[in-house]
């Protein structure tokens, strides 16, 4: 009796696709990012009526400036810039986005970010200096001075950091 033993050859095709060539260094990335693909002005074609609708209230802008430790100089221009940014964000929210895209496959994102350690965060906070060019003043963010109770390096803040006026 003759037995026939058949063998099946398994063939697997591997397909590899790429968006483009890999970036070799940071200058190529900067050149790619800096090259204009579309203009923000085209996306933000707006009339004055629409821009006025997106202006934040004066109280909100004043409160944000106080919270950030910035002076109230150029209040109107800051308010207009904030209104344009809010309008831009509103228009971005209306864009169709594919939720199935995995951000790990992006070309520019760092693949293995290092987690921020407590010691490094503490060192960065300790060495941070106030910048006068940004309008920061000495003592503008000393939140623990508002503490009514403290013990063993812990502080209790019973009142708000900034009282609403």
From TrEMBL:
Localization, UniProt: Mitochondrion inner membrane
GO MF term list: ATP binding; glutaminyl-tRNA synthase (glutamine-hydrolyzing) activity
GO cellular component: glutamyl-tRNA(Gln) amidotransferase complex; mitochondrial inner membrane
EC number: 6.3.5.-
Domain of life: Eukaryota
Catalytic activity reported: L-glutamyl-tRNA(Gln) + L-glutamine + ATP + H2O = L-glutaminyl-tRNA(Gln) + L-glutamate + ADP + phosphate + H(+)
Pfam family, one: GatF
Enzyme's top EC category: ligase
Family: Belongs to the GatF family.
Protein name: Glutamyl-tRNA(Gln) amidotransferase subunit F, mitochondrial
Biological source species: Lachancea nothofagi CBS 11611
Gene name, Swiss-Prot/TrEMBL: GTF1
